[in-house]
Design brief:
The protein is an all-alpha fold. 65% of the residues lie in helices and 0% in strands. Helix 17 (293-307) runs parallel beside helix 19. It starts with a helix and ends with a helix.
Amino acid sequence: MGDDSEWMKLPVDQKCEHKLWKARLSGYEEALKIFQKIKDEKSPEWSKFLGLIKKFVTDSNAVVQLKGLEAALVYVENAHVAGKTTGEVVSGVVSKVFNQPKAKAKELGMEICLMYIEIEKGEAVQEELLKGLDNKNPKIVVACIETLRKALSEFGSKIILLKPIIKVLPKLFESREKAVRDEAKLIAVEIYRWIRDALRPPLQNINPVQLKELEEEWVKLPTGAPRPARFLRSQQELEAKLEQQQSAGGDAEGGGDDGDEVPQIDAYELLEAVEILSKLPKDFYDKIEAKKWQERKEALEAVEVLVKNPKLEAGDYADLVKALKKVVGKDTNVMLVALAAKCLTGLAVGLRKKFGQYAGHVVPTILEKFKEKKPQVVQALQEAIDAIFLTTTLQNISEDVLAVMDNKNPTIKQQTSLFIARSFRHCTASTLPKSLLKPFCAALLKHINDSAPEVRDAAFEALGTALKVVGEKAVNPFLADVDKLKLDKIKECSEKVELVHGKKAGLAADKKDFKPVPGRAAASGAAGDKDTKDASAPKPGPLKKAPAAKPGGPPKKGKPAAQGGTGGTGTKSKKAVETKEMVEPELSIEVCEEKASAVLPATCIQLLDSSNWKERLACMEEFQKAVELMDRTEMPCQALVRMLAKKPGWKETNFQVMQMKLHIVALIAQKGNFSKTSAQIVLDGLVDKIGDVKCGNNAKEAMTAIAEACVLPWTAEQVMSMAFSQKNPKNQSETLNWLSNAIKEFGFSGLNVKAFISNVKTALAATNPAVRTSAITLLGVMYLYVGPSLRMFFEDEKPALLSQIDAEFEKMQGQNPPAPTRGISKHSTSGTDEGEDGDEPDDGGSDAVDLLPRTEISDKITSELVSKIGDKNWKIRKEGLDEVAAIINEAKFIQPNIGELPTALKGRLNDSNKILVQQTLTILQQLAVAMGPNIKQHVKNLGIPVITVLGDSKNNVRSAALATVNAWAEQTGMKEWLEGEDLSEELKKENPFLRQELLGWLAEKLPTLRSTPTDLILCVPQLYSCLEDRNGDVRKKAQDALPFFMMHLGYEKMAKATGKLKPTSKDQVLAMLEKAKANMPAKPTAPAKATSRPVGGSAPAKFQPASAPAEDSVSGTLDSKPDPKKAKALGVSSKTKTAQGKKVPSKTSLKEDDDKSGPIFIVVPNGKEQRMKDEKGLKVLKWNFTTPRDEYIEQLKTQMSSCVAKWLQDEMFHSDFQHHNKALAVMVDHLESEKEGVIGCLDLILKWVTLRFFDTNTSVLMKTLEYLKLLFTLLSDEEYHLTENEASSFIPYLILKVGEPKDVIRKDVRAILNRMCLVYPASKMFPFIMEGTKSKNSKQRAECLEELGCLVESYGMNVCQPTPGKALKEIAIHIGDRDNAVRNAALNTIVTVYNVHGDQVFKLIGTLSEKDMSMLEERIKRSAKRPSAAPVKQVEEKPQRTQSISSNTNMLRKGPAEDMSSKLNQARSMSGHPEAAQMVRREFQLDLDEIENDSGTVRCEMPELVQHKLDDIFEPVLIPEPKIRAVSPHFDDMHSNTASTINFIISQVASGDINTSIQALTQIDEVLRQEDKAEAMSGHIDQFLIATFMQLRLIYNTHMADEKLEKDEIIKLYSCIIGNMISLFQIESLAREASTGVLKDLMHGLITLMLDSRIEDLEEGQQVVRSVNLLVVKVLEKSDQTNILSALLVLLQDSLLATASSPKFSELVMKCLWRMVRLLPDTINSINLDRILLDIHIFMKVFPKEKLKQCKSEFPIRTLKTLLHTLCKLKGPKILDHLTMIDNKNESELEAHLCRMMKHSMDQTGSKSDKETEKGASRIDEKSSKAKVNDFLAEIFKKIGSKENTKEGLAELYEYKKKYSDADIEPFLKNSSQFFQSYVERGLRVIEMEREGKGRLPTSAGISPQMEVTCVPTATSTASSLGNTNGEEVGPSVYLERLKILRQRCGLDNTKQDDRPPLTSLLSKPAVPTVASSTDMLHSKLSQLRESREQHQHSDLDSNQTRSSGATTTSSSTANIDDLKKRLERIKSSRK
């Protein structure tokens, strides 16, 4: 017992495995209890037993095994994981349970098997049971059969696959064991119960006795359809429903469902295919040609025996069919004809669909053979053609059948009609669309009037069948002309007809009681794409508009065109009325007069031919009134128009009367029932008047009205023939114009292309150019509808003309024909039927194709030609192919009958000579275009062999084959290709090339299809084997194709198909399927009708449920709740290439890119996550490269294919940059509407953008950056956060662009980087930018360093990654950089950190070289900004989220976040005192931003300001009224309409037309004059200046020379240009944007203008030159000083080099330079000296001293010296540090020159300072000696005389005069010239003014404490924040002056300050230091606030404004500080 106790302690699972049977028994019992207790099927408990269940059932102890089986059964029933054990458990049951003697065990075993089937594991169970049938133990075999039988009887034949069971049945019947045979009999009976007679053929060979027994059993079976008794888990809800219905007595519904429940098993499916080709007698082909009929008979009999096999294996039967066809067609022995027909029947029955490819060859032959009278022959032929019909579709053979219908032989006619009737029986409403029915009805209607009664009866029967199949609504329009007797006969026939699909039709009718399914849709059982059209038929939405798509069908050749035109849509009665009117008899003039007098006033008729035109006019007015009041039914149209045509008729001479007349014709046509007879009376007159200038429009209106009444095709034909039968070219061209327009309005249907083409050719040959132009325009419109095939008709025109036609076609490319707007009203009666609606597009599709005249070429395909193509000698073969190509070329468009050609060409596809293979492929491409959609019937016999060629080893052959397949698919659609086993057979071939090409092709085509034939599933096993192919490319292509297969077949079917794979393969494939499931795109929806195509993202909601195919599960969910994601997925019509996949065959006008209405980004659930996983798991390449390689681009393409619209992807990856621009434009348009899609594909979009960064095209780059700005704005609004993956694959490439040479681009990139901080943490951005500082590009290094500074400034030290120390060390390295800009940037960045962190910086940056350290200390000292412990406005990470939302961030106004960083930085680099500007920002930012952004209700917190005594300053403040002109309407929405408007207007500035240019200039001027709008120009300055100097050049070279032009005009244009420029150069922030090159050209233009002698001759000329003078001064002062200085140097150099240039020009350039030199002391700090010195170096290189001295004038050399001297003086020795940009300093004269100067000036300054420091005594000593005084003055005058030291000399002279006022300088001046004397006097006066201006201020040394308080805004700010570099203070008066100027500029009233003394004018040397003070900033903000208060709107302060006020010299404005503070207080108190 001890043992017992041991195992009893064990846990249950261990007991179950114990070696003691008792322990196991106890374990199983406990397990059973546990299993019964667990309620949750997903409980983890279940998993513990997973591995044990097999042991439960295979236990060696019988008693224990029983308990184990019980437990296992409960486990399988309840455990969620049980399915995993299926295989092992069932095989255990089969081998270890079924052989048990105990019946209980066997029962439980069976129960377990059935339970596995219930939990959806039927296939695995069935597989194991079938294996059990091979077991040697008969007991096991019997049990297996019994289990299978039980399963079948309980679950039904849907779950249990019968085919494998039936296969083994014969073997079981032969078993020696009686028990097995009996069991086999029972299962055979059970199978019969489910599939009835389909079981007979497979069992026909068993023992006759057994068969007889079976027959007896079968008879006893009940006849009702069986129903499964047990359901799968997934179906059990259905079962519950059924029970409810039955209990409610709903048996009818049950009956209805049966049809669905039991799949109809086809016996054919259960048979084994037999291969017969190899069994044909060896001499068959000789015998069949033998002369003796007996031999021929032998051969046929041999075939007959072989084809009796019910299922034949696929193969190449072409030769056999050809032989049999020859016998049927040519053999004289009728017995053999019948025999051959029987053989064909056998082949068709045995091959089924595989015979379809031969059907087209045989059908015409059989139909023509019906001329035989012998019944047995006729019967054999009937059987043959009926069998053949089942292998193909009516569509494919319709051409052949219709061709035979016109045969003269009545028997042929009769039999063809009967065949059509029989064929119709097999059709359903959906497989017999209107487009197919129409030609058949037309032909049959001829037959019902035939003289032979049998022909009539057959036709009645066919029409009756059609009526029964598609219903009266569809057929009635075609029977409108049939009289009542015949109509009754047709209906009578229709009632007798029994349809093959009768059951189904009944079923649909049954169901109508339960579900409101419209009749048409219900019948569409099969899932072909035709059905999908029907399924989408009952659309409530487009129904009203649908008829617009097609006002009438095309006329078939036999019918009058007019009937064809209206035929398609009207209801029957309507049609009848139409027809009567069309044949209105012609009335005599008397009758007309009588009828007209009944409705018109008597006076009117009398005055018609009055000789006085006024009377005629009055008469017409009355006539018009009468017509307007008449009722449609009473209006005698013909009589009225005859009255109008009565003398003078159309020869009327007065145009007013004529206009009225034509208007009345239009009225009559619109209001009355206007017939063609009436039309013919007036058309001639209308065509005659159409070219008339005054009456032409009225004539056109009348013609349009007639076209509406009598249909366009007829009217157009009449009008064209009339126009071209007379000679007036004006009439001809206007007629063509009218027709172009009419086609757009009416649509193209029904028009006869042939007729037009001949007229158009006449027009193209016309001598009058207007006629030719109109003809070409008409061709363009036709091209929209007909497509490229139109060009073929004009290939023989002259090249010049052809190129014009091509250009017109090019214009039309990609456009969709407009939806017809006319010609609809008549026909769109409420009778239109929904079904018709569904077929509408189909009709339209075939229309355009039917219009083209097709040639019959079968007679040219002679047997000689065919034998040539098959000759042994390749040269002869080539000749044959050449001939074929020539035949097709010549015919242009051909009919589908091409005789023996297909067989011949097919042979050439595997020619050993590859050149011939390629030639054949080219011919096949031609053939596809020439034959159009009719090529369908050749897909099987010619298309599939082309696919075989895809396996060729030569790349060029493969690509030719692919092109051919595509050309064919474009014409045929994909359905024909996917039907049958052909493609799967091709994929079976283990040819890697074939596999990869074919899979690639399928991957491209499948996504565009809405539905596919079920045969697609046949390709899946091959697809799986390709997934494991040895060849990597094949595997990749297979993986790419996987999602698209799944899209059509669904995951379930695909996963099911893995069942047959080996276990290892299965796991791999399933994993791939899972992955594909994630990427599976949604099915494209049915494209909406042309008239109601939804515009924008996805289709409007009302279309959705209907437009998705019925079986598409997505649409189901959509009804319940329109989830936006799904709605998007459904609207993916963008991928529906209508031309390819659909039933609309080759409507070439609907090009692939026609449907661009859907969303461009498709939301693939988890798509992005999957892509990230792949990248992490290294399944795809990581996005990391220096330049993008092809594999990256390919990879991106692949990833995009599932989530970007196909047409957009084509644009994105196009080789031409213009397509990239298009793509970007589309992406910008869809940004707002498709936020979800954009975010879903963001990683791919950003990757694609990085590829664009590597393009060289600037326009693409600019567009890309524009898009990125919008994108990141959107992302931040959506509060999206970039993922690491997105950031790392984008930011590094963006940073590359920061180093672009173009300013505009750099600016954009900086803006984007700023916006990125809103969606990606700045601390993570930091390392990326840090990486950018290591670039070789110095600009990039500098910009990155600047950006790092901004980050630190905005977000504090936390952003520095990995640690502040490491980061700063790296930044500090750049202080020693060789590039000045980089050094400056590095220094600025560290200074920024210093401002945030104080002296700690020195610890963090570690040790620096002495030079670097001194530079840094110098810079910190210069910034002289006290570090605050932390930044005043320290921003945390992601700070701008709140701001950017509150501040209504607009594209053109940058948000505050941006103010903080890069814009500021730019302001910094421009002003000499970066930190001063910064400081201001900090002081007031919080406060003012608050005021601006706040809408007036929020309370503002006051910042702590220094307290002042402000009692005495509270007088009322008057807010000035702005006096600004109203803005032109163009610029109202300036900001929303962004840059495009400005670009457009700027482009007009350079226009050759003076008025256009002036208009553009005035618009720009309006913008520039208003501060708030002027910002819009930012970024466009260069562009604007370029346009301006181009205009200046144009005036100079062209306009001034033009005698005809009024000179006033030119002066006006000049004044506009100059005025504009002055406005522009007033605004410093904009002026600074002008780049060097542009400034150089501008100055060139202005100086040339000043020197233009022609202007001086004009009266206003002087004024112009004066304005230019003023403008030049503005340009010099306001532009970026570095740029303008550089520009002037280059200009001087060019002017000196140019021999043609006048010396005056150079002189003016130098004068400009002198002015710049005078400005230097104030601007030196904002100048990039390195660049200037480089320019001077280049200048000196081009003009060495020697060369300069040779110049006629000494000015150039003196100018240069002055410039250098001034620079030396201002910079001192440091100037030598600025030679960094000069490559080879040794060669440079410059350095030596500078050194000399330095030395000289050091001596000078030294001596000077000594003199100044000595005390007064020594000075007096000096004074005492007169000689010394004279020497001293002589020295001073020498300096004044020398060019370099002139200023210094004047200053010394002034000092001297001031000290010794009695000194006499007269003697020195006497000897000099008058010029020199005035120069000295003027100089002294200037100095005096300057000194006086500054003298008013106390010197900085003497500042008193109170003084400091008033001058300095806050205690924290140091004195220098207001002081200039010399340490002098500037008082408020200076700023007041500036304010005054600013106020004037803004149009503000200045009266208040007028009493203040004026200060120096702007144009004199500015006496203001280059400092931006906090007060400037404050004032500009205040003035803005004031404006915004007036306008009641608060918008952001544009960063550019901030910049301009931060870095300006003269344009900044500020008032007395106290005054400002007072105002600020005011604002605050008012706000509270």
